[in-house]
Design a protein that fits this description.
Oligomer: single chain
Mean pLDDT: 92
Strand order of the largest sheet: 27-26-31-30-29-28
Shape: globular
Distance between the termini: 32 Å
Radius of gyration: 23 Å
Structural class: mainly beta
Helix content: under 10%
Amino acid sequence: KITEKKSGVSWLYKFNLKVIQQLDKGLLFMTEDDNKQVELEIYASDAKGNKVHQTGILARSGFLYSGGGANCVANIESGYSSLSRNKYLLVSTGEGTGWLKLPDFTWNSKQMLDLLMVKQEPNRFVVRSAFQLSNAASFYFTADGGAYVHNTFNIIYTDFAYLNKVKFKAAPYIGGNNYAAILYNEDKQCFVTILPGSTGFDYPPSYCSSVAENLAYEGSNLIYMQQISGNNIVALLKDKEGKYRKLTYRFVGPPMNMMLNGSSSDLTADIAMMEDAEWKAIDFNLKYIYFVKDGRLYNYRETAAINGLEYAKILFDGEEVALDEVVSLNVITNGSTGGDYRNVLFVATWSEENKGRVYVVKPENTESRNLIVQEVIEVDGKVKSVCNWSN
């Protein structure tokens, strides 16, 4: 009601307000049940700063492809300014890959990655893993070894996993920056790079390039690779001589003349236990190595006094926490992610009694096997993938 003071005349205005989302940003957990059915759970703060947990997000969205198991959930943002930025809350299951619309987490049949592809695949496009290195591009990998660029023009470029005109199976990992990226050729067993085209990754070449022999490690077996701080990439492998190595790569130099530098350190043979582990991660800042085997969380300790495997310890207020079965280990490395999320590990556990729990932890600076609890999040399901999101 508005009243004019001079005349005393009043006007009444009536309007409706629809609240479509009480939350602004937080974490999204992709869960999977024993029947490979996938769901999403939110953990975030409301306007008053209270923590809110919501489940059933995927079912309410209308997304039709919730079967086949969990592949990944990822927060993808591409574009150089707020006016040109494309935002995707990517959801990938064994049945299909699409995205949810923000801020209300809705989906329709036009929100499938297939519809953004330059060249349509004969079958439904299903992403196994997704990485955003920078605002220049995101990279998607499929279970059959395909590798694709999602550029700032909102186009998914054709499969670039070719070396010397020969298609190869790409490992589902990548690292790099705005100007170059490194990935692993599983057929030839070596590292290769992809460089941008004349206008950057908006129009990348549809092939990969060889790297120097001392950086390619041809004949090796890649165990795991991950982007960490300072645009460094850490790779763990078994070389052709049977030695286990920890490699650190980095691209340096001007964009038109990028060079790949690398360093190597030896690992002891008991790191072999990590080779068939489903869940692996490297701490973003300290390069500490972790993996999950048979429901237990391990750390590979690297010090002057000892190199070898230890059970990792989850510590809360100085006391070790007795964990239920560990069902996943996640890190968030995407270029759209704030530093707070990159600086932690997400250790997810499950039991019938306690249901799901996610321990948000940071390693001690001087003792890699000690993981300090920052927060414990109660969830309903078995968490398989984690991402942050914001409206």
